[in-house]
Amino acid sequence: MSKFADFDKGNNSIASTNIMRKFIVAGNWKMNTTVPEGVALAKAVAEKSKEVPANVELVIAPPFTHLGAVAAAVEGSKVALSAQNCADKAKGAYTGEISVDMLKSVGCEYTILGHSERRQYYGETDGKLVEKMKLALEAGIKVILCVGENLQEREAGKHFDVCRSQIENVLYHFSAEDMANVVIAYEPVWAIGTGKTATAEQAEEIHASIRNTVEAKFGRETAQDMTILYGGSCKPSNAKELFAQPDIDGGLIGGAALKADDFIAIALSF
């Protein structure tokens, strides 16, 4: 039976709850593809998106240089456009930065914030993320907020604390109403690009912990409505097992998002 039949995630059935949780498969292209390659990939995803159940939203996040061309390529399809980042300032003399209004003007519905690579390589702090998120939400752009632990933190048993702290330091500055436009993506940083993958049980326990952290601040209804994505080497071969878990509502896909067939196969894994 499809999990869409009665929202059979855990014990939460549509018949007995008001859960409005959305299922999302988002592709983060990172610094890959030229504009022509990206347009071709986007067109292939848009064409194949017809196979994906209506309950699953597809999101693609190409590089900034591609956004306008990719927006045109997916127009009229069920594929939503996301940026990979945004500036923490609205406008001004900030060479090389991209504002939320710029993103909005090319059709972005989402932006990814706080990806582990931004935190690790570019020193992004939780404080900066609060400013970015505030601007994005005010502009009507939804946020995919990334949280997650590195290998040292995982081996030290600090993974629950790390994710809790990242959520409290950013999301707790916002309202329950804001959460309707926020998605959380859990990244086991130790699994990104390494070929390692958290077991479905490991992924589920930390997704459940993340949902509990949201509930502690915003209440049960908001927490149950929150979409939480798995972002660690999700691919067609393991997506079905991961997505079957009660608190995993899709994936933030890296390498597999660069192949339209793989990306769609993941979206068909619910």
Give a structural overview.
The chain has 270 residues and is an alpha/beta fold. The chain has one domain: TIM Barrel (Alpha-Beta Barrel). 39% of the residues lie in helices and 14% in strands. The chain has eleven helices and eight strands. It has helices spanning 35-48, 67-74, 100-105, 116-122, 126-138, 151-155, 159-170, 200-218, 220-225, 236-243, 260-267, and strands spanning 23-28, 56-61, 79-83, 110-113, 142-147, 182-186, 228-230, 250-253. An eight-stranded parallel beta sheet has the order 7-6-5-4-3-2-1-8. It is globular and about 45 Å long.
Summarize the structure.
The protein is of the alpha/beta class and 270 residues long.
The strand line-up of the biggest sheet is 7-6-5-4-3-2-1-8
Q: Gyration radius, to the nearest Å?
A: 17 Å
Strand content: 5-15%
- Number of beta strands: 8
Order of helices and strands: EHEHEHEHHEHHEHHEHEH
Q: How would you state the average pLDDT, rounded?
A: 92
Q: State the shape.
A: globular
Which regions have little confidence, pLDDT < 50, spanning 5+ residues? 4-17
CATH superfamily: Aldolase class I
CATH topology: TIM Barrel
Q: What is the makeup of the main sheet?
A: 8 strands, parallel
**What is the structural class?**
alpha/beta
Considering DSSP H and I runs of 4 or more, what fraction of the residues is helical?
25-40%
Number of helices: 11
The first-to-last residue Cα distance is 10 Å
